[in-house]
Amino acid sequence: MAGAYEMLAADYDWMFDDDELANGRAINHPATARLLQRISSTSAVLDAACGTGIDAAALARRGFTVRAADASEAMVEGADARFRRERLAVPVLRSRWADLPAATGERFDVVLCAGNSLVHAAGRDAMVEALTGLRRMARPGGYVVVDSRNWEKLHAERQVVQVASRVVTRAGRRCFVLYAWEIPDRLGDEHIAHLVFIFDNDGQVEPREYQIRFRPFAISELRARLELAGLREVDTDFDTSRDRYAVVTVTT
Ligand SMILES: C[S@@+](CC[C@H](N)C(=O)[O-])C[C@H]1O[C@@H](n2cnc3c(N)ncnc32)[C@H](O)[C@@H]1O
C-alpha cells in the first residue's frame, strides 16, 4: 500500500492548513493529547507512520525525543526534508511496522500509529502482525497509540463526496482538496478514496488525482486485534458521533 503514497507525497501537505503544519494533527486529538500531556516532555516517541513528518516535527518542537518511520520512500524523504529545513534532530527510518523491531534496537515510551494509517494493514492477520511490530517497539510499560477514522460512521453515512472546508494558499499557489469515496456494501471489503487536489495557478485550474485503497475495520475488530498483539486499552476518545478516534494501549 505504501506504493500509493510514493506519488501522493509530493502534494500531501496541501491537505493541511498552516496551523496543522505548525502544531501537528492527530497528536492534538483528545485521547492522544491527554497521553502526551501526562508523560514527561522529554519522553522518547516513535512516530511509526510519519508521512511527511508533520506530527513528528511538532512533537520535536515540544521537546520530546522523536524518531520517525514510514514504509514509503517518498514520505520518508519528505519527512527528512522537513526535519532538515526546521533543524530538528529527528532521524528517519524507512520500515514497515512489522519489520521495525529488526530494523532498530531503539525502544520508546510512546509509539504512534496515527493519521489513519493502520487501515493499510489490510485484514486481521496483517493488522495483528503490524500491531505486534509496534508493540515490540515500546519499552516495557510503554504506550502504543492507534488513531483512526471512524470507519463505521463513514460507512453508515455514505457521504460520497467530501470537500475540504478551506482553500490553502502557499507560495503564491492556491489549492483545495476533495475526497470521493467508493464505498462497497460491506465494511470489510476494499474501499477506494479518490483524493483530488485542485490547484488554481493564476486562474488556470490543474486537478491532480490520487487513489488510496484500503479495507476498513470496526472498532470492535481493532480492539480484538490489539488484544491479540499483546496490547491493553487504557484510554480512548471513541464516540459514534465523531469522525475520528484514538485508542491508547499499554504493553501487557
Ligand atoms: C494517511 S498517511 C498518514 C501519515 C501521517 N501519520 C499523517 O497523519 O500525516 C498513512 C501513512 O502510513 C504509511 N504506511 C502504510 N502502510 C505502512 C506500513 N505497513 N508500515 C509503515 N508505514 C505504512 C504510508 O506510507 C503513509 O505515509
Give a written overview of the molecule.
The chain is 31% helix and 33% strand. The protein contains nine helices and twelve strands. It has helices at residues 2-8, 18-23, 30-38, 54-62, 73-85, 100-103, 124-136, 151-157, 219-228; strands at 44-47, 65-70, 92-94, 108-113, 138-149, 161-163, 168-170, 173-182, 191-201, 204-214, 231-236, 244-251. It has a seven-stranded mixed β-sheet with strand order 3-2-1-4-5-12-11, with helices on both faces. Strands 6, 7, 8, 9 and 10 form a five-stranded antiparallel β-sheet that branches. A hairpin with a 7-residue loop joins strand 11 and strand 12. The protein binds S-adenosylmethionine. The site of S-adenosylmethionine has 22 residues, from helix 1 and helix 4.
